Amino acid sequence: MDNQNFSIIDLERHQTRDVKDSHLNGELTIVWRDWDKIIKNPQMIYVNSVNPGEIKGPHIHKNRTSYFYCIDGYMTLIIQDKNGLYHEIETNSTESKLVSVDNGIATAIINPSKTISKILVLADISWKPNDNEMENISFSDYDWDKWKIN
């Protein structure tokens, strides 16, 4: 799925094998390589933990493009595009999906599960304290109730 303001990228996955007898022992997922042209020179990489049933955001990063990859649990990104339309991108740690959100696009992260979720975030511009790069906003016409955990 590609939109002018965000995109979902299927990441490359490889099975891994034991060095002694070659049985499958797991897999690796490639999130970034300097020659892939998916993420242009990430300057910041961090893990964002989201408690069960919680929402982070919504907010806008004025200058940076962010890339989200769920490494543990579940995540739903609510993205409001430049036309004011909402997009709900659901993924989890068993899927190899990288979601790219352009700068200037409003986004919220929801953990719709009953366990802590961890999201790997890569950004093309580093965050600095007091840089005023992020603006909190409100999706006042969005139905947040549908994500409540009973």
Task: Provide a short characterization of the protein structure.
This protein has 150 residues and is an all-beta fold. The protein contains no helices and twelve strands.
What distinguishing features does this structure have?
single chain; 150 residues; mainly beta; Jelly Rolls; five-stranded antiparallel β-sheet; 0% helix; globular
Describe the structure.
The chain has no helices and twelve strands. The protein has strands at residues 6-10, 12-17, 24-30, 44-50, 55-61, 66-72, 74-80, 86-92, 97-101, 106-110, 117-123, 134-136. The strands form three sheets. Strands 1-9-6-11-4 form a five-stranded antiparallel β-sheet, with no helix packed on it. The protein has a five-stranded antiparallel β-sheet with strand order 8-7-10-5-12, with no helix packed on it. The chain is mostly beta strands. The protein has a single domain (6-125), classed as Jelly Rolls (Sandwich).
Write the layout of secondary structure elements.
Elements: E1 6-10, E2 12-17, E3 24-30, E4 44-50, E5 55-61, E6 66-72, E7 74-80, E8 86-92, E9 97-101, E10 106-110, E11 117-123, E12 134-136
Antiparallel strand pairs: 1-9, 2-3, 4-11, 5-10, 5-12, 6-9, 6-11, 7-8, 7-10
